[in-house]
Automatic annotation (TrEMBL):
Gene3D superfamilies the UniProt entry points to: GntR ligand-binding domain-like (1.20.120.530), Winged helix-like DNA-binding domain superfamily/Winged helix DNA-binding domain (1.10.10.10)
Protein's name in the database: GntR family transcriptional regulator
Lineage per the UniProt record: Bacteria, Pseudomonadati, Bacteroidota, Sphingobacteriia, Sphingobacteriales
Keywords: DNA-binding, Transcription, Transcription regulation
Domain HTH gntR-type: 9-77
InterPro entries reported in the protein's UniProt record: GntR_C, TF_FadR/GntR_C, Tscrpt_reg_HTH_GntR, WH-like_DNA-bd_sf, WH_DNA-bd_sf
SMART domains associated with the record: FCD, HTH_GNTR
Source organism per UniProt: Sphingobacterium ginsenosidimutans
């Protein structure tokens, strides 16, 4: 008898799947506002961190649009599943090649369009990246690294580029957890990441792209 491979899902993934199902059934219609965190916590009998993780996942998957200060809104019934499936089948080099191409264009545009909020988000993610790298917390360090690059993507001024990048980042996160055994590479590249943010802050496109190339070549 052929062995069945069972994929174990986290509690947050289970909640995300349940919310996704409600979106597809029309219980949460497109453009409507998702119930508040306390309401979702009560509905699914889980904690705040689980709800936040589920919302983050659904946002990255194209189902939700999180608008700071306004709430979370239903963005799509289908999300990025077709793209996700194709990326899932891709190999490490292919995914990083696409990410490289996207990232250079995003950084170029972010150096022109970055906002005060975008820079604040980058600075916070970078601070967390350094903190977790030094403490040796690989999972939190990878998440902070992704958050930093996602903050740059959010600042580029092109929603499609941002969505594509965030979709790729979900898979890059998985690869990082497979290839990195500790936070040593993140400590080594922290200075370059700080230089990247400074170049974006200074609207120095040439310097930002040059630093980004250095970072990508060392990953």
């Amino acid at each position: 008898m052929k062995n069945e491979h069972i994929v174990r899902r986290s509690l947050a993934e289970e909640v995300a799947a349940a919310i996704e199902e409600k979106i597809k059934l029309g219980n949460f219609p497109v453009d409507s506002k998702l119930p508040t965190e306390p309401e979702l916590m009560k509905q699914f009998a889980v904690g705040r961190s689980t709800i936040r993780e589920a919302i983050k996942y659904l946002s990255q998957s194209g189902y939700l649009n999180v608008q700071q200060g306004l709430g979370t809104f239903i963005k799509s019934v289908t999300g990025h599943h077709a793209l996700d499936a194709k990326i899932e089948k891709g190999n490490f080099n292919d995914i990083f090649e696409v990410r490289h191409v996207l990232e250079l264009k995003i950084i170029e545009k972010a150096a022109i369009n970055r906002s005060a909020k975008g820079l604040k988000d980058m600075a916070l993610a970078l601070k967390n990246r350094a903190k977790y790298a030094i403490s040796g917390d690989l999972i939190a360090c990878v998440e902070a690294d992704i958050a930093f690059h996602s903050a740059i993507a959010e600042s580029c001024g092109n929603n499609i580029l941002t969505a594509l990048y965030n979709t790729l980042s979900v898979h890059v996160n998985k690869f990082f957890m497979e290839i990195y055994k500790d936070t040593t590479p993140f400590i080594a590249s922290q200075k370059q990441h700080e230089e990247l943010m400074e170049a974006i802050k200074d609207k120095n496109i040439q310097q930002a792209v040059a630093v980004a190339n250095q970072i990508i070549q060392h990953k």
